[in-house]
Write a structure and sequence with these properties.
disordered C terminus, 6% strand, 11 helices, alpha+beta
Length: 310
């Protein structure tokens, strides 16, 4: 059922591509948009992972350079029954992470420097396990294709703005249709991304908790990441908002308008479900939420030793 829903949502993205193309160039524009959509999907299949990693200037991590981090990823991948993915480090103060790749044999997990500084070993394991769950469910390909299509739809709409649309007499939409396409299409693409991403985050949380064996650690990590991320600006994410849904927590520094179009489910609800998995119940949720908010500090959050990345 989830696969069918994802297929339908991605088909909707492709249909949006055709609508924008038709608004810009009539029948000819629709044909060109169809070709572009096919090419975009093909590129997303083969090259989206490398594109996203370059976008965030992620650097590969070798077993020699960061043995503890690599060992942790390898251990969790073994628990998940996955090949060990490539590991990348992003030089950003914001604690965050994402997974990418077209399948488990061509996957990568990227973590930020801020994540390694802010998390204890147990919390970092929870975050990595969440990303491995995305790889295991092959979410990484779906989300990469969605991000690439959303970005391409926005580009196509901007193209129409600069070139003024079609003068094709067979195009019934005219200037008004073009204007609507330029405004509505990117918003519709964002809504499709949200529909793809939100349900998958809950499932990745559940599977990630099973992989790391500690739902509370993942819940703790989610709360800590959101506390710090909301006050940390990440230029690459702000310039490429179509990639926001790839991260474990939305990296955008937006205000109220961004909150209306969040690509992730509410973090409080994710924490509640994780604590329920751990048998924490309502009292556990209240006690957890009452912990003080603070940035990275030696010894990791909650006063525990952060391990080799603290």
């Amino acid at each position: 059922m989830a696969t069918l829903r994802t297929f339908l949502l991605l088909a909707a993205m492709t249909a949006l591509f055709l609508v924008v193309g038709y608004a810009i160039g009539g029948g000819t524009g629709a044909v060109i948009a169809l070709v572009m959509a096919a090419g975009t999907n093909l590129f997303a299949w083969w090259g989206s992972a490398d594109m996203v990693l370059r976008m965030y200037r992620a650097q590969p991590v070798t077993p020699m350079a960061a043995p503890e981090l690599y060992r942790l990823v390898a251990e969790l991948a073994g628990r998940a029954g996955l090949p060990v993915p490539k590991v990348y480090l992003i030089e950003s103060d914001q604690p965050n992470a994402f997974a990418t790749g077209r399948d488990p044999d061509h996957a990568a997990v990227a973590v930020t420097r801020g994540l390694m500084q802010a998390m204890s070993r147990e919390e970092l394991a929870g975050v990595i396990a969440h990303e491995l769950a995305h790889i295991k469910h092959r979410d990484t390909l779906t989300m990469a294709v969605a991000a690439t299509l959303a970005g391409a739809i926005g580009f196509l709409a901007q193209f129409g703005l600069f070139f003024g649309g079609s003068r094709d007499r067979d195009n019934p939409l005219g200037g008004i249709g073009l204007l609507l396409a330029m405004i509505v299409a990117p918003l519709a693409a964002m809504l499709v991304q949200m529909a793809i991403s939100r349900g998958r985050e809950f499932e990745a949380d559940r599977e990630g908790a099973a992989i790391c064996g500690n739902p509370r650690a993942l819940a703790s990590a989610l709360q800590r990441i959101e506390q710090i991320a909301t006050g940390t600006y990440v230029g690459a994410a702000e310039r490429n908002p179509a990639t926001a849904h790839l991260f474990i927590i939305n990296p955008l520094h937006g205000g109220a308008l961004a909150g209306m179009f969040r690509t992730h489910p509410p973090t409080a609800e994710r924490i509640r479900r994780l604590l329920a998995l751990g048998g924490a119940g309502r009292a556990g949720t209240a006690g957890f939420a009452a912990r003080p908010a603070a940035g990275p500090r030696p010894g990791g959050p909650w006063g525990r030793r952060a391990g080799p990345w603290g």
